[in-house]
Design a protein that fits this description.
Blueprint (H helix, E strand, L loop, with lengths): L15 E4 H20 L9 E4 L5 E4 L2 H7 L5 H16 L4 H20 L4 H22 L1 E2 L5 H12 L8 H15 L1 E3 L2 E3 L5 E7 L7 E3 L2 E3 L11 E10 L19 H24 L4 E4 L5 H9 L3 E3 L4 H11 L3 E2 L11 E11 L2 E7 L7 E7 L2 H24 L1 E4 L3 H15 L5 H12 L1 H9 L4 H13 L5 E3 L6 E3 L6 E3 H19 L3 E4 L19
Parallel strand pairs: 7-16, 10-11, 10-13, 11-12
Antiparallel strand pairs: 1-21, 2-3, 4-17, 5-6, 8-16, 9-15, 10-14, 14-15, 17-20, 18-19
Helix pairs in contact: 1-3, 1-4, 2-3, 3-4, 3-16, 4-13, 4-16, 5-12, 5-13, 5-16, 6-7, 6-11, 7-11, 8-9, 12-13, 12-15, 14-15
Length: 541
C-alpha cells in the first residue's frame, strides 16, 4: 500500500506566493498600470489629476511625482516605479512623468519578448547595452550652454512650465526663475554651484499668478512684535540673533528667598536692567532691525519700540540661514559678542499686508545669495500647482547650468535615440538584438504620447518624425498645436540633458530589476494580539 506523502509547509500560514511567468506578468502589469495613470499628463496638452485623500484634502496637479506620492500605492512592483519618479525629482526636478512612462513601456515591450520564449536574462543584457548606448548618443547630440545664454535658459524654464498650472504667466515666471537662479549662482574655478535651497518659495493666496514677484532678499511670514515699532526701516542694519532676548532661567532648580518687599522690587529692577542692557548693546552697535530665532520678552519689545528698532521673533532656523546669505550678516548666539561687523545689510525692511496676513520683507539686499519668490494665485489649489511648476522650472535651469548641456524637447531626442539604437542593433548577432530593438521601440512612447494627448494620430506623427530624422534633422519634434513636424530647438522647446539621461538610466535600471524577479513571496498579515478577556461575549441585555 502506497504511503501517503505528508505535504511540507516551509512558509507560515497566510503567505501568498506567485512564481515564474505569473510573478513576472503581475509585476509588469502593476508597473504598466502606474505608467498608464500618469501618461495622460505628459506634454503641453496633458491633462491634470484630482487626488482626494481620506480627510477630503484635494490636490489638483499635473506633476508626475506628486500624483504617485498622493496615490499611496500598495503593490511592491508599482512602488519601485514610484521610486523612479522620486529619484528624477531629487536629481533633476522635472521629467518625472517621462521617466515613469519609459519604464512602463520598456516592461511592456519586454513582455512581448517573454511571450516569444526569450529568457529574461537575455532581455536584461540587451536593455543594459541599449541604455549604455543611449547615454553616449544623448551626450553626442546635446548642445553646450553657459550662464551667458539667458535666452536659452528662459526657454528651458518656460518649456518646463508649459502644460502646468503656471502656463498662463510662463513668460514672466520663466524670466523670474532665471533671474533668481543667476542671483544665487556661485562660480569657483570655472565650476558652477547652485543650491536650490537658496531660492525660497513663499506662497500667499489672493491676487493673480501674474502678480508673483521676485524679492532680492527674504520674505518672512512674520509680523513685527510690537505695534509701536516702525513699519518700515530704510538702510537696515540687521542683527541675526539665535538666543532668547529675555532673562535666562537657571539650569538647576534654585530658590530665591525674599524676606522684605524692597528686595522683591530690587529683584525685578535687576531683571529690567539686564533686559535694558541687552537692548542697549543692540542699539550701541547700530542695529535698527532685530531678527530673533527664539522669543523676545515683553519688556525687551517695549524698549526696542521706544528706540525705533524693528523686531521679529521665532524665525525658522532655515530662514535665519537664508537671511545670513542674503544680508551677508552673521548669526550670533551671545549678545555680548555682537559687533557691528556681524550685522547684515538690506536696503529696506518693511511690514506689508499680503492677503489676510502681515509679512516682513527684507529686500534690496546687495549681492543677495538667497532670494524669495512670492507666489500668488487665486485659490489654494492654484497656488500649490504654481509652486510645483516653479520648483520644476528652478530645478531644470539649475540642471542645465551645472551640467552645461541641453537638448531640444518635443519628442526629438527620443526619436534620435531609437534611430541610433536600431543601427547599433544591426551590428549585433544573437537574441540581444531583439531586446535592443524593443528598447528602441519603447523610446518612441514619448512622442507617441505627446501626439495622443494632443488628439493627433500617433502613427502619422511618428512616420513623419522618423523620416525627418532620417534626413539628419536631429531636432525634428512634434508641434502639438499644429500637428506638424517642427524644429524643436528653433521653437524654443529646450530641456536640460540631465532630464533625458536620468530618465533613461533609472527607467532601464528599474525595468531590468523587475524583469529579473521570478518569485514573489508575500508574508501573511500577523494577527493582532487580542486584549485579555476580549473573547468573552458581551452580556446581553
Amino acid at each position: 500500500m502506497a504511503r501517503e506523502v505528508q505535504p511540507i509547509f516551509i512558509l507560515p500560514e497566510g503567505t501568498q506566493r506567485s512564481s515564474g511567468r505569473t510573478a513576472q506578468r503581475n509585476n509588469i502589469m502593476a508597473a504598466k498600470l502606474v505608467a498608464e495613470t500618469v501618461r495622460t499628463t505628459l506634454g503641453p496638452k496633458g491633462m491634470d489629476k484630482m487626488l482626494v485623500d481620506s480627510l477630503g484634502e484635494v490636490v489638483v496637479t499635473n506633476d508626475g511625482v506628486t500624483i504617485l506620492e498622493e496615490m499611496s500605492i500598495e503593490h511592491p512592483a508599482a512602488k519601485m516605479i514610484v521610486e523612479i519618479a522620486k529619484t528624477q525629482e531629487d536629481e533633476v526636478g522635472d521629467g518625472t512623468t517621462t521617466a515613469v512612462v519609459l519604464a512602463g513601456e520598456l516592461l511592456k515591450k519586454a513582455e512581448d519578448l517573454l511571450e516569444m520564449e526569450i529568457h529574461p536574462t537575455v532581455i536584461v543584457k540587451g536593455y543594459r547595452m541599449a541604455a549604455e548606448k543611449a547615454q553616449i548618443v544623448l551626450n553626442k547630440i546635446a548642445e553646450p550652454i553657459s550662464p551667458d545664454d539667458i535666452g536659452i535658459l528662459k526657454k528651458i524654464a518656460m518649456t518646463s512650465m508649459t502644460g502646468k498650472g503656471a502656463e498662463s504667466a510662463k513668460e514672466k515666471l520663466g524670466e523670474m526663475t532665471v533671474k533668481a537662479v543667476m542671483q544665487v549662482m556661485e562660480i569657483s574655478n570655472s565650476k558652477i554651484t547652485i543650491d536650490k535651497e537658496d531660492i525660497k518659495l513663499e506662497k500667499k493666496v489672493g491676487a493673480s499668478v501674474e502678480q508673483t514677484e521676485l524679492v532680492e532678499g527674504i520674505v518672512l511670514d512674520k509680523e513685527r512684535v510690537h505695534a509701536g515699532m516702525p513699519k518700515i526701516v530704510k538702510n537696515a542694519k540687521i542683527a541675526l540673533i539665535d538666543t532668547a532676548l529675555e532673562v535666562k532661567s537657571t539650569e538647576t532648580d534654585a530658590k530665591i528667598q525674599i524676606t522684605d518687599p524692597t528686595q522683591m522690587q530690587a529683584f525685578l529692577d535687576m531683571e529690567e536692567k539686564m533686559i535694558k542692557k541687552m537692548v542697549d548693546t543692540i542699539e550701541a552697535i547700530g542695529a535698527n532691525v532685530v531678527i530673533c530665532q527664539k522669543g523676545i520678552d515683553d519688556l525687551a519689545q517695549h524698549f526696542m519700540a521706544k528706540r525705533g528698532i524693528y523686531a521679529i521673533r521665532r524665525v525658522k532656523k532655515s530662514d535665519m540661514e537664508k537671511l545670513a546669505k542674503a544680508t551677508t550678516g552673521r548669526i550670533i548666539t551671545n549678545i555680548d559678542d555682537l559687533t557691528s561687523s556681524d550685522l547684515g545689510k538690506a536696503g529696506v525692511v518693511e511690514e506689508q499686508r499680503v492677503g489676510e496676513e502681515d509679512m516682513t520683507f527684507v529686500k534690496d539686499c546687495k549681492n543677495a545669495k538667497a532670494v524669495t519668490i512670492l507666489v500668488r494665485g487665486g485659490t489654494e489649489h492654484v497656488i500649490d500647482e504654481v509652486e510645483r511648476a516653479m520648483e520644476d522650472a528652478i530645478g531644470v535651469v539649475i540642471s542645465a547650468l551645472t551640467l552645461g548641456k541641453v537638448v531640444a524637447g518635443a519628442g526629438a531626442p527620443e526619436i534620435e535615440l531609437a534611430r541610433n539604437i536600431r543601427h547599433y542593433a544591426e551590428s549585433l548577432s544573437g537574441r540581444e538584438q531583439l531586446a535592443l530593438n524593443a528598447f528602441a521601440d519603447a523610446m518612441e512612447i514619448i512622442p507617441r504620447t505627446l501626439a495622443e494627448n494632443a488628439g493627433l494620430d500617433p502613427i502619422n506623427v511618428l512616420t513623419e518624425l522618423k523620416s525627418a530624422h532620417d534626413k539628419n534633422k536631429k531636432w525634428a519634434g512634434i508641434d502639438v498645436f499644429t500637428g506638424k513636424v517642427m524644429d524643436a530647438w528653433q521653437h524654443g522647446v529646450i530641456e536640460p540633458l540631465k532630464i533625458k539621461t536620468q530618465a533613461v538610466s533609472s527607467a532601464s535600471e528599474v525595468a531590468t530589476m523587475i524583469l529579473r524577479i521570478d518569485d514573489v513571496i508575500a508574508s501573511g498579515k500577523k494577527e493582532e494580539p487580542k486584549m485579555p478577556g476580549s473573547e468573552d461575549k458581551m452580556p446581553e441585555y
